[in-house]
Amino acid sequence: MAQTSLQPARGTHDLIGEEFRRHHHVIETARRVSALYGFEEWATPIFEDTRVFSRGLGDTSDVVSKEMYSFEDRGGESITLRPEYTAGLCRALVSNGLVQANLPRKIFAAGPMFRYERPQKGRYRQFHQIDLEIMGAAEPLSDAEAIACGWHIQQELGIAQGTVLEINTLGDAASRDAYRAALVAYFTGHRDALSEDSRARLERNPLRIVDSKDPKDKPIVAGAPTIHDHLTTEASGFYDAVRRHLGRFGVPFRENPRIVRGLDYYSHTAFEFVTDRLGAQGTVMGGGRYNGLVEEMGGPFTPCVGWAAGVERLSLLIEAGGKTPPAPRVVAVIPVGDAAEATALDALQALRRAGVVAEIAYKGNLKRRMERANRIGARAAVIIGDEELAAGAAQLRDLDAGTQERVPLAELPARLG
Ligand code: ATP
Ligand code: MG
């Protein structure tokens, strides 16, 4: 006998029953709505060459510096379980020679991600994302359309009233250089009061301090300069256009100059859909413009914009106030006596081929089978005994209304469809 019962590994979870249905509903809804906007779905591998995610010393994000599941495989290659979709999709654009043809390319993707984090509600080590990318578009209209699609998905999920879109700009390279210098000057003045993590970032990437969730840093960050004092004319023109287009798409937003995003490769637009319904895990969807990533994968300069959203966090929002899709209700086909079994199986398959969810119990008398039908919440029972067999018919019992009538077998699919 096993000494201990095995549990899912820390930070992972099983999806069963209602939870699976909510999860699936999130992905299906995103797939359907993104298709309405002209996005095509891609799937890339769950693991990649580590260099796809870790691109030299420039990357100081938490994800790359401390959350990746990286290991050497048996051939000595460094492999990483993907912590995000964007880098793999950019790699795929380049590896498949798609960097010239038919740009912009509008891509939807969904699947599991892996990050070594401290697990808590809404934060896991294996979690799932839906992801949207527009590759090869430099126009601010594409930023706004990506966001509008994300908002549309949340509306379809019935959770849009619980989230708020916050947007910011990170400017262009010139804006960021000026901002970086201003931040270094400001944070250096508060060095001793900063958290240890933030002191380390001061040298490497002071912009990330603005994103700190450490309570020690928050009052200091509140007084920090914002990028808006350092935007070039071009960068602020781009930001104006994004806001104007969002207005035309009818997407409400508020500006938050503190948004800098968790990954290092963003420029111009940065945004998050936030909620106060998930405790500390307040961000459900986040993204922005990243213009240099395809080049880092060995492709030509290809401006992109996109976002990712946590499926578990969206599911939690549905649980908290949206609508969970109900389990499909089954029709139970019940043969009474051995002679009816073959006919019952024919009737069962005819129903399934007509798109009716139908089941047959593997054993049991009429009473047992009726009990099971009720237990699984069947909407109807199709009962075939000797008399019905002779007449080419079945007793059709509506289990909600409690009514019963004889129906010719051939009419069952139409009656139940
Ligand atoms: P956070 O600040 O919550 O760590 P992040 O900035 O690391 O988020 P992104 O890399 O932008 O998150 O990922 C996009 C979305 O994926 C997040 O907004 C969130 O909904 C979801 N997400 C990220 N990390 C996790 C996780 N460990 N568990 C569950 N969902 C996650
Ligand atoms: Mg994170």
Structural summary, described in words:
- Helix 1 (about 20-35) packs antiparallel against helix 4, helix 1 (about 20-35) packs across helix 10 and helix 4 (about 140-155) runs parallel beside helix 8 (about 235-250).
- It is built from 14 helices and 16 strands.
- The chain folds into two domains: about 20-170 and about 230-320, Bira Bifunctional Protein, Domain 2 (BirA Bifunctional Protein, domain 2); about 330-415, Rossmann fold (3-Layer(aba) Sandwich), CATH 3.40.50.
- About 35% of the residues lie in helices and about 20% in strands.
- A hairpin with a 5-residue loop joins strand 3 (about 70) and strand 4 (about 80).
- The strands form three sheets. Strands 1-5-6-11-10-9-7-8 form an eight-stranded mixed sheet, sandwiched between helices. A five-stranded mixed sheet has the order 13-12-14-15-16, sandwiched between helices.
- The chain is elongated.
- The chain has about 425 residues and is α+β, with helices and mostly antiparallel strands.
- Adenosine-5'-triphosphate binds near residues 115, 283, 309 and 313.
